[in-house]
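hey
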């Protein structure tokens, strides 16, 4: 059965239902990063350090899903009792939180005041059509591409509504409903952050910490009651990441770049030690999902460390073009990579331990990128053709 490829033996707790596609991932991408390249007023130039962080997050998401079925593979090369797959799977858990942080940062970067309904209509037009298309495609894939069964599902409004609201047809689609909640609340959050940035970040931190801490206590069987089934998909559980991105945008970017570049090596070392401790704790507790209070610190570390590393890489020839290219296609890669992984896993070569996993990662990245570029060309080409059809040409095709 197609949906079985991401099934694991992980014990799911905390009142949520795992997707049949899912890795030991969450309750484990997002607007363009816009703004001036230096400190000061906001503008419309791309920030390459934000594009670089988006690329890092995208690679981390792919790592989680590629490594999901290799977690228990035996290998002669272990670190603290963990194989490479487990280390990659857990060390990459900052990916979705960082995507949310970058989304808040990018929205604030534009600096434009627009009516709420206009803002919501614009965001909906960007996010919902591709999301709807991929929800339907993954639903079809989950039926083994049985059109009769799929048609029956589409004729069931409660099922369709549940799929759209939760994104549970694949292990990564849940991100879009969470992101859209951020969009719905953004005007209120913006007024709050503008009025009291420190207090807003502190309150968001407290709410997210308490809710995610509640899931951790439930996983450890220290909480005497069950949490609501879909609480993990609601904005409060993830609020700190989005609000933190909005607050971080208010820092002077030139100063931020300089300080992160100076501290890049210490930040890398701290991040490496933190990742080892996080992976070891995951292994010890057998808790693998991304609703963990420790990821609050990991996400901020990834943000500052990523900016510092990019300041080192900025001078490399072609680095900016590569980062911009992948950032433009990050969402397309995000959407299609799970389906690509499923089909690539049909080949025996990808089942040969850790080397097979690394080869699967490379193949997934290449093929997913090619598909994302192709779909982008088709989408923008179709929109261009539609936009250039004259009114009388449109009418001439009507009966």
């Amino acid at each position: 059965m197609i949906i079985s490829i991401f099934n694991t033996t992980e014990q799911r707790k905390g009142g949520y239902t795992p997707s049949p596609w899912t890795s030991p991932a969450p309750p484990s991408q997002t607007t363009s990063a816009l703004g001036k390249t230096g400190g000061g007023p906001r503008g419309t130039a791309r920030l390459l350090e934000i594009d670089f962080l988006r690329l890092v997050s995208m690679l981390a998401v792919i790592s989680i899903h590629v490594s999901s079925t290799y977690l228990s593979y035996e290998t002669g090369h272990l670190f603290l009792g963990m194989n490479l797959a487990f280390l990659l799977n857990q060390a990459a858990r900052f990916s979705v939180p960082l995507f949310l942080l970058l989304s808040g940062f990018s929205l604030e970067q534009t600096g434009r005041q627009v009516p709420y309904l206009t803002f919501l209509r614009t965001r909906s037009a960007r996010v919902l059509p591709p999301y709807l298309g991929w929800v339907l495609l993954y639903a079809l894939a989950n039926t083994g591409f049985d059109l009769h069964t799929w048609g029956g599902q589409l004729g069931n409004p409660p099922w369709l509504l549940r799929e759209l609201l939760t994104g549970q047809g694949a292990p990564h689609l849940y991100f879009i409903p969470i992101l859209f909640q951020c969009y719905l609340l953004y005007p209120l959050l913006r007024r709050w952050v503008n009025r009291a940035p420190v207090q807003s970040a502190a309150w968001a931190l407290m709410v997210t910490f308490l809710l995610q801490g509640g899931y951790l206590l439930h996983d450890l069987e220290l909480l005497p009651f069950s949490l609501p089934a879909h609480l993990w998909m609601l904005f409060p559980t993830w609020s700190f990441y989005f609000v933190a991105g909005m607050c971080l945008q208010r820092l002077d970017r030139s100063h931020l770049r300089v300080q992160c570049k100076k501290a890049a090596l210490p930040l890398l070392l701290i991040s490496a030690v933190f990742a080892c401790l996080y992976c070891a704790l995951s292994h010890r507790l057998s808790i693998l999902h991304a609703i963990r209070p420790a990821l609050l610190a990991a996400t901020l570390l990834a943000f500052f460390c990523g900016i510092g590393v990019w300041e080192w890489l900025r001078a490399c020839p072609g680095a900016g073009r590569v980062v911009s290219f992948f950032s433009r296609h990050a969402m397309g890669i995000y959407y299609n990579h799970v389906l690509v992984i499923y089909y690539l896993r049909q080949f025996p070569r990808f089942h040969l331990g850790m080397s097979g996993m690394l080869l699967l990662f490379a193949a997934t990245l290449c093929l997913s990128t090619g598909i994302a570029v192709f779909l982008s060309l088709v989408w923008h080409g179709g929109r261009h053709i539609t936009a250039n059809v004259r009114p009388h040409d449109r009418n001439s095709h009507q009966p």
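The CA atoms of residues 198 and 330 lie 31 Å apart. The two ends are 45 Å apart (CA to CA).
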